[in-house]
Design a protein that fits this description.
Length: 85
């Protein structure tokens, strides 16, 4: 049985405001690097640049929703993506 491909995504939180309902940061997976802003009260995730965005937006959104209350500015986190990037 072959193993499913996976890539580790590394997330760094650069800004967080519970009053504004916003978390911002950077996510890196393989050679890709994106900046993101998650407005959790509106359930809106913006990921830039657009190159490779389709690969990361859904898994990043799931990660943020699952761990939002544990994330802190300056914190480094990681999660697995079930794809080879």
């Amino acid at each position: 049985m072959s193993k499913l491909p996976e890539t580790i995504a590394h997330v760094r939180i650069t800004y967080q405001s519970w009053q504004q309902g916003n978390i911002e940061g950077e996510v890196q997976a393989s050679e890709y690097v994106w900046q993101f802003s998650w407005q959790f009260r509106q359930d809106k995730l913006v990921v830039e640049p657009s190159l490779g965005r389709a690969l990361i937006q859904e898994p990043l959104g799931r990660f943020l929703e699952r761990f939002d209350y544990q994330l802190e500015p300056g914190g480094d986190y990681s999660f697995k993506i079930r794809a080879q990037l």
